[in-house]
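Structure ticket #2291
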Amino acid sequence: MRPPYRAVREAHHYRVIQSLAHTIKADAGPIALFDQFRKKRNISGYDHAGMISDQEAKEMLDLASRFRQEVEEWLHENHPDLMEE
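Resolution: structure written out below.
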């Protein structure tokens, strides 16, 4: 059985990204940037290999790291029981 917080249907990456506005009240700007990276990854993964530059990969990693920190802080404040000690 999958945990209830995992999107399991088509467009699951899109759904998870868009949910950030409702779950952790993330700003629209970073969500839009995540979605741009998602779209580019889909194109490069299926149609055109090599479309993503090293700089874009670094920007995505930095964005993901910032969001991870934000989500962990939100979880500690709102659902500490879900966090491992």
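Closing remark: The mean pLDDT is 80.
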